[in-house]
Design a protein that fits this description.
Blueprint lengths: L6 H5 L3 E8 L2 E2 L2 H14 L9 H10 L6 E8 L4 E7 L4 H6 L1 E10 L14 H12 L4 E6 L4 E4 L3 E6 L2 E5 L9 H9 L2 E4 L3 H5 L3 E6 L3 E8 L2 E2 L4 H16 L6
Parallel strand pairs: 5-6, 5-12, 9-10
Antiparallel strand pairs: 1-2, 1-3, 3-4, 6-7, 8-9, 8-11, 11-12, 12-13
């Protein structure tokens, strides 16, 4: 694979999307296309718009028989990469739930890069690796005001009683595709959330485009006894994309 050196690979001025493939079909493709094309405009990048035909041409030329796979698309000024890899999440992950810790790295809510899925992803990967070494599945970032923002590869939702909360975009986070799905299908309160509120939650779940909805078992020493709403949302989410992988929300 030949990659040309450009601003994407020299300075991180490129974009990527990671898409779940279910039986060869990209889940929520329209949402992924809308987000990456909006980022091209918002960041003023000299990159051609990503078209749906490009995605399906690649998939038609690279068919497999796996039920689940992962498609990664990377765009920069001189490069357009389409890559497939193995899907690694299992039912055991959902049964056990994720274990979280709080990162000491702060999200910069004043930076435009915080709100786009760019090739400036070093903080996320390094903090994820550090958490794994400590026995956790995902680190959670606070911003400069000590407000909860997101995980290294996920958005976070908090359940208190029968109410669902998630951090406001202005706190400094990526507007995830599954985040948009949940906000469109449930009564979600977008607010500023601090660590005390998080520790007093009845349950927490994470979301991203690959594992969908992941129940949380614990936040460091705090163990959450309930995963009821998390699993109800997970089941509905699966029904929706199994019925129509291009589901519009």
């Amino acid at each position: 694979m030949l990659i040309e050196l450009d601003d994407g690979y020299s300075f991180g001025l490129g974009l990527f999307e990671t898409i779940l493939l279910y039986k060869g079909k990209p889940v929520f493709l329209d949402g992924h296309l809308a987000r990456i094309n909006k980022s091209i405009v918002d960041l003023g990048l000299n990159i051609d718009k990503l078209e749906k035909d490009e995605v399906f041409q690649y998939l038609n030329n690279n068919k497999n028989t796996f039920e689940y796979e992962v498609l990664k698309i990377v765009l920069s000024e001189k490069n357009r990469l389409f890559l497939k890899r193995e899907y690694t999440y299992t039912e055991k992950d959902y049964q056990k739930g994720f274990s979280l810790n709080i990162s000491k790295v702060r999200r910069n809510e004043s930076s435009i890069f915080t709100f786009h899925k760019t090739l400036n992803y070093g903080d996320n990967i390094l903090e994820k690796r550090k958490s794994k070494k400590l026995g956790y599945d995902e680190p959670i970032f606070l911003n400069s005001k000590n407000q909860i923002t997101e995980g290294a590869t996920s958005n976070i939702f908090v359940v208190v009683g029968d109410k669902i909360y998630t951090p406001k975009l202005s706190c400094g986070l990526l507007n995830g595709i599954v985040r948009q799905y949940i906000i469109s299908n449930y009564d979600v309160i977008e607010s500023e959330i601090d660590l005390e509120f998080l520790n007093n939650a009845d349950e927490i779940f994470l979301i991203n485009s690959l594992f969908g909805i992941m129940p949380v078992n614990n936040l460091e020493k705090k163990v959450f006894k309930s995963q009821k709403i998390s699993k109800e949302i997970l089941n509905k989410y699966r029904r929706d994309y199994e019925k129509n992988s291009c589901y519009r929300f």
